[in-house]
Amino acid sequence: MTTDPASITGTWSFPTQVRFGPGRIRELARVCKSLGMGHPLLITDPGLAELPMVRDAISANEAAGLPTGLFSEIKSNPVGRNVTDGLAEYRAGEHDGVIAFGGGSALDAAKVIAFMTAQTRTLWEFEDRGDNWKAANGDDIPPIVAVPTTAGTGSEVGRAGVITDETTHTKKIIFHPKMLPAVVISDPELTVGLPAHVTAATGMDALAHCLEAYCAPGFHPMAEGIAVEGIRLVKEYLPRAVADGTDIAARAAMLAAASMGSTAFQKGLGAIHSLSHPVGAIYDTHHGLTNAVVMPYVLAFNRPAIEDRMIRLAAWLGLPEPSFQAIMDWVLALRAALEIPATLTELGVGTERLDELAQMAADDPTAATNPVPAGPAEMKAMFEAAFQGRLP
Questions:
Q1: Are residues 273 and 251 in the same domain?
Q2: What pTM, to 2 d.p., does this model score?
Q3: Beta carbons within 10 angstroms of residue 308's beta carbon
Q4: CATH, residue 290
Q5: Rg (alpha carbons) of the chain, rounded to whole number
Q6: Residue 76, Cβ density class (10 Å: 0-12 exposed, 13-18 middle, ≥19 buried)
Q7: Could you tell me if 291 and 342 lie in one domain?
Q8: Do the domain assignments include residue 56?
Q9: Of 156, 191, 226, at which residue does a domain stop?
Q10: 186 with 200, same domain?
Q11: CB under 8 Å to 252, separation ≥6 — which residues?
């Protein structure tokens, strides 16, 4: 570690109360009441809204004297209209709290809806740039309880939500410290029914968060330690969770890894997300799956800045002959074992908007913490590699 005072200075904050373990969903009504909720709005996606887990949660709340509304008009890549509609539903129902229930899309949208109930400015004025968040009313944001049903984004312990601006087809990160849920109920039993391909894609999202947080520049040894252990959990348990969705130990480990990734990436992300965000905004691809596809190409680009870190990481993971190449080989093998496509072309992404994608990636807020500075030309080179499946 360097002894330069400027390089060992940082500001750290860590997440919220997490009620973790099988069956903890039964505590939902009690948790909501402890936060002062009398009539919460449960926000989820259309698919989950039809499943017993959501109906059972609402019924249990009502049996406990806690009438609960439902809003589920959330796209897989949530857009501004989803937030506007959810906000209207919240106000029309005179709700007093939000239950964010589902995968990353539902959690992100729910947190942003809760945040916007207290605002008079427009949604896009709170994009995570500079100190935009300071213009927000932070006093009247209602309490949020987060219930993740996938193990990927870690949005349940995050202070931001990713929303697509339909007018520009750009993903924007909306941030405020009080978007952090007051309580998380992390019950691995809720993830048991997740299909294998979704388990794989969301699990690779957790890996991307941990890996980029570990590699991001800056001084945050607590985040780095969490990221490294999150990567180990993914290595050991993601293949198990994909192979057997009823493996509760594997499901629990992946839920923990997802939350750890989101906790760690307050240190920063990088070009994996910079490339993935515009692709998802324009082509509506699955975020975790897109991260998984571009991951090795970004690692290769960043090699000059992260090689020493990769050697340490490979040793921690118990890989033979610890090296950058050992990490690359593991990532490629994991991707293949999970049947993750190797190129963006296989996701249905075309090259006709390559220059636009490269510019959007360079402009994405996550680009600022990529280990190797990357402008439009560098982003274009990584995109080209990801289209061609080309590694050094």
A1: yes
A2: 0.92
A3: 9
A4: 1.20.1090.10
A5: 20
A6: middle
A7: yes
A8: yes
A9: 191
A10: no
A11: 20, 21, 22, 188
pLDDT over 60 (residue 3): no
Place of tokens 């509304």: 69
DSSP H or E stretch at residue 100: strand 98-102
> Which of 359, 348, 354 lies closest to 283, judged by CA?
348
Q: Which residues contact 383 (CB under 8 A, 6 or more apart)?
A: 275, 344, 354, 357, 358, 361
Residues 6+ apart with CB under 8 A from 323: 310, 311, 314
Range of the domain at 183: 17-191
pLDDT digits (tens, 9 = 90+) for 67-77: 999 999 999 88
Residue 69 three-state SS: strand
Indicate if 155 and 214 belong to the same structural domain: no
φ, ψ (nearest 5 deg) of residue 246: -90, 0
204-259 pLDDT, tens digit per residue, is 999 999 999 999 998 999 999 999 999 999 999 999 999 999 999 999 999 999 99
Cα gap 327→319, rounded to integer Å: 8
Among 44, 48, 100, residue whose Cα is nearest residue 73: 44
Question: How far apart (Å, rounded) are the C-alpha atoms in residues 106 and 269?
Answer: 21
Distance linking the first and last C-alpha atoms of the chain: 30
Q: Please give the mean pLDDT across all residues of the chain.
A: 94
CA–CA separation, 202 and 16 (whole Å): 22
What does the DSSP assignment read for 16-36?
A: -EEEESTTGGGGHHHHHHHTT
Please determine, for residue 328, whether its predicted confidence score (pLDDT) is greater than 90. yes
Are 230 and 247 members of one domain?
Answer: yes
Q: Are 366 and 216 in contact (CB under 8 A)?
A: no
**Residue 104's domain is classified under what CATH number?**
3.40.50.1970
Indicate whether 337 and 316 sit together in one domain.
Answer: yes
